[in-house]
# Entry
Amino acid sequence: MMSQAVTFSGVKRVFESVRRAWILYPLKRDKGGNHDESMAHLRKIIHVDMDAFYASVEQRDFPELRGRPVAVGGSFKRGVVSAASYEARQFGVHSAMPSAIAARKCPGLIFVPARFEVYRTVSRQIRDIFLRFTETLEPLSLDEAYLDVTSPIQVGLSATEMARRIRRAIKEEVSLTASAGVSFNKFLAKVGSDHNKPDGLTVIRPRDALAFIASLPVEKFHGVGPVTARRMHEQGIRTGADLRQFDEDELVQRFGKAGRYYFRVSRGQDDRPVRMHRGRKSLGAERTFDANLTDPKAMMERLSGIADKVSQRLQNAQLAGQTVTLKIKTSDFQISTRQTSTSHLIHDREDILEVVDLLLHHAPSPPDKPVRLLGISLSHLRSLADGLPPEQLRLDLEG
# Structure
């Protein structure tokens, strides 16, 4: 009986290993129906995300700001918050929030002007650190990037050790902290970098991936924002385990094309490569008017048509963006831009207009001179062909 028990236990372990491998690495077939053996080669991906980057640079450069709630951009009465320190986030302050609401939420909030040239310089320093370990690098913005270290420059180091050394180098050379996620695909590496913020390191190994995803709240899934999370909660879907109860067709029926993405990542499947060349950096449209505009309502009417054109171009290119820029040229030919970043990808006309309305009226106020040209552009673009669904943005205007 003992030998039978041991044998049965061994069979169970083998069966569980096979089941887990089948879910995580489903065999692909080529056009001839043959199995693609390339899936057997696991990649090593690191996602590095700087901690409250803009605000942390300000606290680094101005010691009097350390330990205090800081908002980059805006002022007590006007403007839009570009970034918030962790001290400010505890009060509910976040990016793309009107400054007046942020000030109400956090009475001791300190507003500082954005210094984008400084942030770009620091970002280049951080990127140079990444390049010591791999040339396969995909920057997503100034403060985060994917690194494929499957074939690293420094041979003999594990991906986890490389992530440790990268974070240590950033802290010692740039005096900032970064969080990192290490796993075998981009989705899990990205989720991992957010898991123990700030100044954290999370490693998700193949044998642990399914259990990790099963317990992960859906709002922590990269690509699931507040709006979609609420829809999922209304349908009783709260964790990765809940998502795995549905087949692909059911998820597509409930969430559209994004359902295919949710089906795959809830099973730990993500074969998107780390792309070294990201293509176009921005996409937009602008219009010069025959008669100058002075009424903000008329400006929004014109901006509606421009947003429609931008949205159509984004959808044709299968792109979505995170940073929205409003361009204004006044009758004296002076050009100004107003910009803010969202926490989620957007490409719908309504979402673009919602941000543009915020920029026109609150960053800092409607133009006080007649306007002859308006333009809208989106940057920090991501490919929808990669499977990442755009998330509708809902700005916090209520407070």
Remarks:
- Confidence is low (pLDDT under 50) at residues 1-6, 26-40, 391-399.
- DSSP finds 14 helices and 15 strands in the chain.
- The radius of gyration is 23 Å.
